[in-house]
């Protein structure tokens, strides 16, 4: 599928805050999910902006093609009726020596990513990285407030028995190291399956 890119180019000297919904919409994902999605997309990905300051990646997609998405930790940035959403766009020449840069380089002939392929890759990446979505809200272990997007975090294990899974909200998830804790992920998946069967 081809994308209908409108003529547009990034700024030339410094990051510029540009409105979504004019030339493109944007999709943001946390770095671990974005890393996996990029490996799934391969050369099918359009340009990607990496925001090292906030640990996110942004894809540019066609305007009004992703309003109904529901993928954990993935956010669609689009024009709203009563407010303007801006995104910081770096110059096309900025690479890893800047905090915000083009992780997948901007090309005038291919800066948009196919929305359907991106959705499939992000949904799979979200499942693989974050595990199944817990049923219902969970309390954030750090702030003790309920969250609709709970993220399981590593806990210390005693012997061969895993402790209870702890969840945090997206804001506090960055305070925990990203680890591939197999025991934690297995416990979370087992609990999600058990809850699904009991309902």
Output the keywords.
single chain, 199 residues, alpha+beta, two-stranded antiparallel sheet, 11 strands
Question: Mind sketching the topology for me?
Answer:
Elements: E1 16-19, E2 25-30, H1 31-41, E3 48-51, E4 56-61, E5 75-77, E6 86-89, E7 100-104, H2 115-130, E8 138-139, E9 146-147, E10 151-153, E11 166-168, H3 170-173, H4 182-198
Antiparallel strand pairs: 1-6, 2-4, 2-5, 3-4, 3-7, 8-9, 10-11
- What is the N-to-C succession of helices and strands? EEHEEEEEHEEEEHH
The percentage helix is 10-25%
Inertia-based shape: elongated
Counting structural domains, the number is 2
Low-confidence region ranges: none
Strand order of the largest sheet: 5-2-4-3-7
Number of strands: 11
- The tally of helices reads 4
The first-to-last residue Cα distance is 40 Å
